[in-house]
Each structure stands twice: as structure tokens, then as C-alpha cells.
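Sequence only, no structure available. Ideas?
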Amino acid sequence: MSASPLPSPFLLATTWAPQGAGRYEATLTPDWFQGRGAYGGVLGAGILRSMLHALADPPRLPRSLTVHFCAPALAGPAQLSVSVDRAGRQVTHLSARLEQGGAVTCLASATFALSRESALQWDTRPLPAVPPPTQLPSVPTELLPTFGQHFDYRWCLGAPPFTGAEEALLGAWVRPRVPTPLDAPLAVALLDALPPAASARAEGFCNLATMDYTAHFYTPLPLEGASPEAFYLRSGRSAHAGGGYSDDLALLWSEDGRLLAQLRQMAALFA
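Reply:
I predicted one. C-alpha cells follow.
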């Protein structure tokens, strides 16, 4: 895949128009849909990118983002309001509300903070032993949800969705089809670009819907020196399912083995 002169569809979809006073106008299009509405990764990415714009303080890096999905976000305009709830000496907290037709579709909060010196540093979750993406075939777009047309997937870990596997584990190398530098909004989208790991244990297709997720960012983003054509390994694992809901922990690594971010979500199971 060579660099494209075309604008990144992902950047276009997640750069929402500022309206002043912390308000933004989004235009949601069906090519970013999953089922009835926009997939959660593009919504979270658009919310986070708008928060970064409203904060306008690059040294304060995003450390966490939580999004509650209250209703499907449909095609057409949507209005986002961003509020800076507290700005301390090192940490700033923001909240946001996405609405369509006066009804809430998403509620979000995020924490931004300056880096600080610390002698405590470790990382005990190494890159899983998987083949490199160049040795794996790309998943055909006809096997993907609608929004998947924008991503290049190389399956490499666990079992595919809806195959009745014994373990709720799945993972793939993934990147935008149009080269796009990795920043925090794209990390959110990649973390949410695969179905919940509970889908691997389902025997046949069933619907799963994210109720909420929280992303934590471990590395300063945008990722310095990374190629816009780079792949990222996204793994997902579920430890519990019951009562029609499951947990999910997704991790994101760079090709050179750096753990970049994680996303923990609660999914509703319709099976």
C-alpha cells in the first residue's frame, strides 16, 4: 500500500466542524455504519478529536476516554457539546454530549494530563507471538461490517467471530486502507474495529452491541516516527459473560512491540 494523495477518510469522518462555545457539528455517513448506526470507534474518535480541539493544549495528552452509547447514531447531522469541567495544574477533565434531534446518543468524559517524572516504569504485556502482517492475507471486505471497508484487517489471533470457539479470544493486525498517521482518535477507532471477543464463542451469528467503553493511552500520541502505512495489532479477550452481557479487554500494540493503549468495554449479547 503506497501513500495516497487523497485525504484520509478517517480524518474526514472524525474532524467535526467547530461552531463556537464548545459546540461541534458532525455529519454521520452510512459508510461508517455497523448495523443500525455509526460504529462506536468513529464516534469515540470524533468526540476525542473535538475534545482535543476544545482543550487546545498539546502537552496535555489524553490519558483516558469513556463513552456511553445511549442510542444508535443515525445518518445525518449530529451536535456535540464539549465542556471543560476542571483544569488543574497538571490534569484537565472534559465531558461531552452528542445529540441528534434533541435526543442523546452518546455521553463521554476524558482526562488529559501532562507527563510527569517517575522512577516506576514497567510493561508486563508483551506483543503476542503472531506472524507479521506482511505474511498474512487481507480479510475480504464482503466478510466485514460496512465500516470495515475503511480498514485493512489481517487475522492472526484466536478464532474468528461466530465460530463456537472454546476461548473468547480474537485479534488481527489492522490499519486504515488510506494511510493515516496514528493519533489518539485513530487508536480508539482501531481498538473498537473488531467485534467483542465474546463473538468467538457464539455458535453462529448473533448481534452484539457496545454499551460503553473506556480507553486508556499508554504512549504519547501521535506516535512519533510511525509510518502512516503501519499496521497495529489489536487483541481482544473476554473473561466473563452472563445475564446477556459480556466484558471485553482490547489491547493495541505497534509492529515493534510497544503497548500503546487498551480499551475495556461492556457489550450486550443478543444470543
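Residues 40-55 form the longest helix (16 residues).
Hope that gets you unstuck.
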